[in-house]
Specification:
Blueprint lengths: L6 H13 L3 H13 L11 H20 L2 H11 L2 H6 L1 H15 L1 H5 L6 H16 L37 H20 L3 H63 L6 H11 L2 H10 L7 H9 L16 H10 L2 H17 L4 H12 L22 H15 L2 H7 L4 H12 L4 H14 L3 H9 L2 H8 L8 H15 L2 H9 L1 H12 L7 H11 L3 H9 L2 H11 L2 H14 L45 H8 L32 H5 L5
Subcellular location: Cytoplasm, Cytoskeleton, Cilium basal body; Cytoplasm, Cytoskeleton, Microtubule organizing center, Centrosome, Centriole
GO biological process, one term: cilium assembly
Subunit structure: Interacts with TOGARAM1, CCDC66, CEP104, CSPP1 and CEP290. Interacts with NDUFAF2.
Length: 663
């Protein structure tokens, strides 16, 4: 075939045969070319590899011997591939020593005193190299002393540079240079046919990497759009609920009952986005006819929902086995994929089915008494596995049925408390552990356990320095503290360190993170029902502190602080403030599922080329048969609407509170 190709292609073929030492084949090919009247280029053979490379090597060595710095490095940069100069550690070290050779050449080989101008020029050239390309080796112990060379007046007598001026140093360096050049030019004479093959393979590899990266980006965008869709769907369900209330109100007006502006305001606040709620609640006059309807038409758009299919069933036995026995990287990818199933699934039947499958197959081994269980991943030596396990537990705790599953016994609670106090390496791990515990505090039995375990003392200690905490940690710590302070046992715990608790809460009143204010107010209002804490608060001038915030707070904040001041100045226990700790059967729980965006923030791992992740990993390697099961929804508790004027007096979680759900 080579004979039929143009002359350059024929030469390429001959080049490869010669390089691979197919001598008989080359002779036969040459003979046949002559018979066919297609003479070969005279340079075919050993001269392919020798002529040009030998000349370059000779010129480089000559420049080395003559101390001709500029000629040497011009040839060096022209003929030594940049990938070798920049990527090969031996080449980098050799180049460093070559620069030293030329910098001290005149000091070693000049007869008499070296020419000062020429010496300064060489030293300046070396100094420029150290400040630019040579800076990469400044952290290497071997080369560190040589960075002082340009600044030493007489290097020949300096003990740090004694080795450079020994007779053997230059010949040894020259030998290294010659060996390096021989290797480089042998590699560079690789036949063009082989080079074409390698370049094509590299091109394909780069293209595959680009396509893989595009796929990862597409999946990430898909998750973002899915979360937006879920938000729209949640708004739709909220709208349906409000509509039902309004229909009831219209029926009431037929009977002669009036709708108050306050009621209309509370309905509209539930309909608008978080950013608009505060301004609506305090700046819009709902007594003017048409105001509410105009605002609603401007903000609400119709939402068209489609049927959402159920996700494929999984082989949970294999999943749990690999979560316990697999590599840390596989464990992390599995924990991530299982979490994404929850966080990106559609609220409603799809998400409920996913969660019910996890629970019915005891995914986290909450019912297991084995020493090796999935829950033990919370104490893994791998930071990534620990973090991803904490994220998954937090995702479970974000759902009412997930909390019920995790709260079957206090084993999970104790593990989370231990992790919270021990975790000092990973902020996100601690955030997710804290988030899960805060959601646990919606359940009365777990509140009791956390109070008995002294978690209030830990929270107060952490909140002494709020500026060192992330926004998430600060918000969930204060919200957890408030939930625990709503219980009489929690208040009694606070009474033991009343001065410290009051100091921490009063400092938090003025914190720049305004999201924490409802929880600070709720905690203060609650603990001030205890006479001993009221006395401590009066002694430290709490009323004056509170009145300072009345001057600069918004209307809602002002009304809440007024309630706190009233509580501070009361002499008797208000009816119903102290709860009984004896009844652990009823939960002060929102019947709402809040899946936070923070659960999927700042992912630590990304799949490499050929690695599976997310839903693709689950459905490719762990597809099961009929592991999805139906579920019975628990009957929700009757909602108790929070007016916004009074401090919080029921347990909440920040996600639910921000979304304006009743508590």
């Amino acid at each position: 075939q080579a004979i039929l190709l143009p002359q350059p292609s024929k030469v390429v073929g001959l080049q490869y045969l010669d390089f691979a030492e197919f001598e008989d084949t080359l002779k036969t090919f040459s003979k046949e070319c002559k018979l066919k009247g297609k003479p070969l280029c005279k340079t075919v053979g050993g001269s392919f590899r020798d002529s040009k490379s030998l000349t370059i090597q000779k010129d480089l060595v000559t420049a080395f011997d003559n101390g001709d710095q500029k000629v040497f490095f011009n040839l060096w940069e022209e003929h030594i591939p940049s990938s070798v100069r920049d990527g090969d550690s031996f080449a980098q070290k050799l180049e460093f020593y070559l620069h030293i050779h030329f910098a001290i050449y005149l000091l070693k080989y000049s007869v008499g005193r070296p020419d000062k101008e020429e010496l300064d020029e060489k030293i300046s050239y070396f100094k420029t190299y150290l400040e630019t390309k040579g800076a990469a080796l400044s952290q290497t112990t071997e080369f560190l002393p040589f960075y002082a060379l340009p600044f030493v007046p007489n290097p020949m007598v300096h003990p740090s540079f004694k080795e450079l001026f020994q007779d053997s140093w230059t010949p040894e360096l020259k030998m290294k240079l010659e060996k390096f050049l021989a290797l480089i030019f042998k590699a560079s004479n690789t036949p063009k046919l082989f080079t074409i093959y390698k370049e094509n393979g590299q091109s394909n590899k780069e293209m595959l990497q680009q396509l893989h990266q595009q796929l990862v980006e597409a999946e990430r965008r898909s998750m973002t759009y899915l979360k937006r869709y879920n938000k729209i769907q949640a708004d739709y369900h909220n709208l349906i609920g409000v509509t039902a209330e309004l229909v009831d109100s219209l029926e009431a007006t037929v009977s002669g009952k009036m709708i108050t502006p306050e009621y209309l305001q509370s309905v509209c606040v539930r309909l608008f986005s978080n950013q608009m709620r505060q301004s609506l609640a305090h700046s819009v006059d709902f007594t003017r006819p048409g105001t509410a309807s105009t605002m609603l038409r401007a903000s609400l758009a119709p939402v068209k929902l489609k049927d959402v299919p159920l996700l494929p069933s999984l082989d949970y036995e294999k999943l749990k086995k690999d979560l316990i026995l697999g590599s840390d990287r596989l464990k992390a990818f599995l924990l991530q994929a299982l979490r994404w199933r929850l966080t990106t699934s559609h609220p409603g039947e799809q998400r409920e089915t996913v969660l019910q499958a996890y629970i019915s197959n005891d995914l986290l081994d909450c019912y297991s008494h084995n020493q090796r269980s999935v829950l033990q991943l919370l104490h893994s030596k791998s930071d990534v596995v620990r973090q991803y396990m904490a994220r998954l537990i937090n995702a479970f705790a974000s759902l009412a049925e997930g909390r019920l599953y995790l709260a079957q016994n206090t084993k999970v609670l104790r593990m989370l408390e231990g992790r919270l106090k021990e975790e000092d390496k990973d902020i996100i791990t601690r955030e997710n552990v804290l988030g899960a515990l805060q959601k646990f505090s919606l359940r009365r039995p777990l509140q009791t356990a956390m109070i008995q375990d002294g978690l209030i003392f830990w929270l107060v200690d952490v909140l002494k320095d709020p500026d060192c905490l992330s926004d998430y940690t600060l918000e969930y710590s204060v919200a957890l503290l408030m939930n625990l302070c709503l219980r009489s046992t929690g208040k009694n715990m606070c009474a033991k360190v009343a001065g410290l608790v009051l100091k921490v809460l009063s400092d938090l009143l003025g914190h720049e993170n305004h999201e924490i204010q409802p929880y600070v107010n709720g905690a203060l209002y609650s603990i001030l029902s205890v006479p001993s804490i009221r006395e401590e608060a009066r002694a430290m001038g709490m009323e004056d502190i509170l009145r300072c915030f009345i001057k600069e707070g918004n209307a809602e904040m002002i009304r809440q602080i007024e309630f706190i001041i009233k509580q501070l100045n009361s002499e008797e226990l208000p009816d119903g403030v102290l709860e009984s700790d004896d009844d652990e059967d009823e939960d002060d729980e929102e019947d709402h599922d809040i899946m936070e965006a923070d659960l999927d923030k700042d992912e630590l791992i990304q799949p490499q080329l050929g690695e599976l992740s997310g839903e693709k990993l689950l459905t490719t390697e762990y597809l099961g048969i009929m592991t999805n099961t139906g579920k019975m929804r628990r009957k929700g508790l009757a909602n108790v609407q929070w007016s916004g004027d009074e401090p919080l007096q029921r347990p909440v979680t920040p996600g639910g509170h921000r979304n304006g759900y009743p508590v």
